[in-house]
């Protein structure tokens, strides 16, 4: 598990290897990840956007920006959390992701970024 706290928001990520498959005559490696975003602060916040840097050992870094997460812009009250699962395809059996969430504090209207810790992907057969 990879964990980081920024401005009272705790982000924890766990990863899984989902398998390999062929697409367009190339092998792809599928990985899943589950993110838990916990509000350790005293104000209600909303996640409005995300930014990802995706690292693949055989390709250039890819940047992904978008609204919310998996089609939602969750509101997270103090002491509560939001958990979701997603995934990515890599050209190699080893890679990583990192990024940040754009958040809004409902009490102060402050906009801020919450860091997502760098988390690694590795197919079981690719590590010693």
UniProtKB/TrEMBL annotation:
Gene3D superfamilies: ApaG domain. One of its GO terms (biological process) is error-free translesion synthesis. It comes from the Bacteria. Residues 3-128 form the ApaG domain. Pfam families: DUF525 (PF04379). This is Co2+/Mg2+ efflux protein ApaG. It comes from Flagellimonas marinaquae. The gene is apaG.
């Amino acid at each position: 598990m990879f964990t980081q706290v920024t401005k009272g928001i705790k982000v924890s990520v766990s990863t899984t290897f989902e398998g390999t498959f062929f697409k367009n005559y190339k092998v792809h490696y599928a990985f899943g990840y589950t993110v838990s975003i916990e509000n350790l602060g005293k104000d209600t916040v909303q996640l409005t956007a995300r930014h990802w840097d995706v690292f693949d050992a055989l390709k250039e870094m890819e940047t992904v920006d978008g609204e919310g997460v998996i089609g939602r812009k969750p509101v997270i009250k103090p002491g509560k959390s939001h958990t979701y699962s997603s995934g990515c395809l890599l050209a190699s059996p080893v890679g990583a992701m990192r990024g940040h969430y754009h958040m809004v504090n409902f009490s102060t209207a402050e906009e801020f970024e919450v860091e997502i810790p760098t988390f690694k992907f590795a197919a079981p057969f690719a590590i010693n």
